[in-house]
Amino acid sequence: QGQLVESGGGLVQTGDSLTLSCVASGLTFSTYGMGWFRQGPGQERQFVASISWSGTTTHYAESVKGRFTISRDNAKNTVYLQMNSLKPDDTDVYYCARSGRVALGTEFYEYDYWGQGTQVTVSS
Q1: Please, what is the Cα angle at 101 between 44 and 83, to 5 degrees?
Q2: Per-residue pLDDT of the chain (124 residues; tens, 9 = 90+)
Q3: Residues 6 or more apart in contact with residue 16 via CB below 8 angstroms
Q4: Do the Cβ atoms of 36 and 81 come closer than 8 Å?
């Protein structure tokens, strides 16, 4: 059974940095696009960033552009989300997901495998 496992979340202060990791196992990773989403209590899951299978194409939500960087290491079946200049508004549960389509998407239904999520809390 394929799975994605996120790690690296935690409690940080405004302006700090965090790097999230997501390791894939039991599923094809290196030929699929990957994405990061986040979700707060009672809110819809929101797109954060995506990366093509080769790593050459990336997309970001406007709210994180210039502060977050998505990357991947296909040899390690791992996708990363480097988060800098964190703000309280970035507080959410962060999920990684595997794209179910050839083109990178920004909607949750375009992704077929999901991790369990990792909590990021940014204090003011």
Answers
A1: 50
A2: 899 999 999 999 999 999 999 999 999 999 999 999 999 999 999 999 999 999 999 999 999 999 999 999 999 999 999 999 999 999 999 999 999 988 888 999 999 999 999 999 999 9
A3: 86, 122
A4: yes
Reduced to 3 states (helix: H, G, I; strand: E, B; else coil), residue 93 is strand
- 8: which 2 tokens? 């690296």
SS3 29: coil
39-54 in b/e burial notation, b at 16+ Cβ within 10 A? eeeeeebbbbbbbbbe
Total number of residues shown for the chain = 124
First to last CA, the chain: 40
Which residue in this structure is represented by tokens 């939500």? 61
Q: Which two tokens stand for residue 69?
A: 């960087």
